[in-house]
């Protein structure tokens, strides 16, 4: 099995994004033409055949999501592309925006055909400001060629896309918080009395998808759902863009078929650990992901095998830490991030992050205690089960997995106090 593939990523660095003609020469907008021929039901059938799941982290079957959304009535509907890529160690969506924006645009139009929507927005995080004008230019060139605007490809279908700039809040990666932000409110998650597909932006039916998901839709319609579904494993079909970073020789965004092992990702794709050092741990899925010890390196990178160990693929980040990193120091950096990014809406997340940060600081300085370890684990579980949204529920994931796999790191910090007392 090839360790990397080029389906979603096949156009990376192969054309000048200032030239839509170069994109067309690579087969650009052929998937859109096919989408008009297939119609909404045919598009959904292709997605179901591919086995595509949402690539933003939730991993909900895309075909099922679109089928449910397509049944929602309404004369005014909205498509949102979620490009608020705020998960630390994650940058695969940035690669798509930077090197293949038309594929994302094409995916948004295909979503609009399926959902019968005429309005589209791409919410790009503020830190990607240098990409905002580039994407606007791609939109303009698409309009000039008749792929956006009125009567697209003479099919009587109207759809347009607007770039919306986020303010850099991590919690706005959650779709309802993103929508609140777009409406001019504080970016805080909504109480989900209705699905977003029923009442989303301005209470209109709204279909929101991640950048990679929409790019994958374009690739699937271009190659065919069955063909795309041949990659991966029986339960995790297709490919995944990963963001490989940290103490590896070849960091970058790579497309891999589900089923490669973590060892292959680190040592074959990533070229091994820098300076020949030993691997200490991985973190999968970004800051909200689990800490993975070297003993689990032969796990396959797929939903079922990782899920059986309580590990999520999440955003697709694979962060590599070598032997020079202390687990408690790494956890403190993760915890500082969540303390800063918690929106404060619910008590478990707001106060839990604050108290966990205080306790972690004691472990970092060698002033922790056995009681602190019990307390920090108890607070983490309260956050995991009682927080309002995914931020609070997943913020303690790294900590809980580190306690499970690296308990000695915490006890060493307790021992330091005993030795100096």
Structural domain tally:
3
Element pattern in H and E: HHHEHHEHEHEHHEEHEEHEHHHHHH
Number of helices: 17
Residue-averaged pLDDT, rounded?
95
State the end-to-end CA separation: 56 Å
Description:
A hairpin with a 5-residue loop joins β5 and β6. α4 (92-99) packs across α5 (101-115), α5 packs across α8 (211-223) and α13 (347-364) runs antiparallel to α14 (370-386). With 421 residues, this protein is of the alpha/beta class. The protein is globular. The longest helix is centred in the N-terminal third of the chain and has 21 residues, at 30-50. Helix content is 45%, strand content 12%. It has three domains: 20-225, Rossmann fold, CATH 3.40.50.11540; 239-322, Ubiquitin-like (UB roll), CATH 3.10.20.600; 327-420, NADH-ubiquinone oxidoreductase 51kDa subunit, iron-sulphur binding domain (de novo design (two linked rop proteins)). The protein is built from 17 helices and nine strands. It starts with 19 loop residues before the first helix and ends with a helix.
Short structural summary:
The chain has helices spanning 20-25, 30-50, 62-70, 92-99, 101-115, 129-144, 175-182, 211-223, 225-228, 262-269, 303-307, 327-341, 347-364, 370-386, 390-394, 397-405, 407-420; strands at 78-83, 119-124, 160-165, 206-210, 239-246, 252-257, 279-284, 291-292, 317-322.
């Amino acid at each position: 099995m090839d360790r990397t593939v080029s389906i979603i990523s096949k156009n990376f660095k192969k054309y000048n994004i200032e030239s839509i003609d170069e994109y067309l020469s690579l087969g650009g907008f052929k998937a859109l033409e096919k989408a008009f021929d297939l119609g909404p039901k045919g598009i959904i059938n292709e997605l179901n055949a591919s086995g595509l799941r949402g690539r933003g982290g939730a991993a909900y079957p895309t075909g099922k999501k679109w089928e449910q959304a397509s049944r929602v009535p309404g004369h005014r509907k909205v498509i949102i592309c979620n490009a608020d890529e705020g998960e630390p160690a994650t940058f695969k969506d940035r690669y798509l925006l930077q090197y293949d924006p038309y594929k994302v645009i094409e995916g948004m139009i295909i979503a609009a055909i399926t959902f019968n929507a005429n309005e589209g927005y791409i919410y790009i995080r503020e830190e990607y400001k240098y990409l905002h004008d580039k994407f606007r230019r791609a939109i303009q060139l698409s309009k000039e060629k008749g792929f956006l605007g009125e009567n697209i490809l003479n099919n009587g279908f109207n759809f347009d896309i607007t770039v919306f700039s986020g303010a850099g809040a991590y919690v706005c990666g959650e779709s309802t918080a993103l929508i609140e932000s777009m409406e001019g409110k504080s970016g805080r998650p909504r109480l989900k009395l209705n699905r977003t597909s029923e009442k989303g932006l301005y209470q209109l039916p709204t279909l929101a998808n991640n950048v990679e998901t929409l790019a994958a839709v374009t690739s699937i319609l271009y190659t065919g759902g069955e063909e795309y579904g041949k990659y991966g494993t029986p339960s995790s079909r297709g490919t995944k863009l990963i963001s490989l970073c940290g103490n590896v020789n070849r960091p970058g965004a790579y497309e891999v078929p589900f089923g490669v092992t973590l060892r292959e990702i680190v040592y074959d794709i990533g070229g091994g650990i820098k300076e020949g050092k030993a691997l200490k741990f991985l973190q999968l899925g970004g800051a909200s992901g689990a800490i993975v010890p070297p003993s689990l390196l032969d796990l396959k990178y797929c939903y079922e095998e990782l899920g059986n160990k309580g590990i999520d693929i999440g955003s697709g980040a694979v962060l590599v830490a070598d032997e020079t990193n202390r687990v408690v120091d790494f956890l403190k950096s993760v915890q500082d991030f969540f303390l800063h990014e918690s929106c404060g809406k619910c008590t478990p997340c707001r106060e839990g992050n604050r108290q966990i940060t205080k306790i972690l600081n004691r472990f970092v300085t060698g002033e922790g205690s056995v009681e602190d370890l019990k307390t920090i684990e108890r607070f983490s579980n309260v956050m995991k089960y009682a927080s309002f949204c995914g931020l609070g529920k997943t913020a303690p994931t790294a900590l809980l997995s580190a306690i499970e796999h690296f308990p000695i790191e915490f006890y060493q910090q307790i021992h330091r106090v005993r030795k100096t007392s």
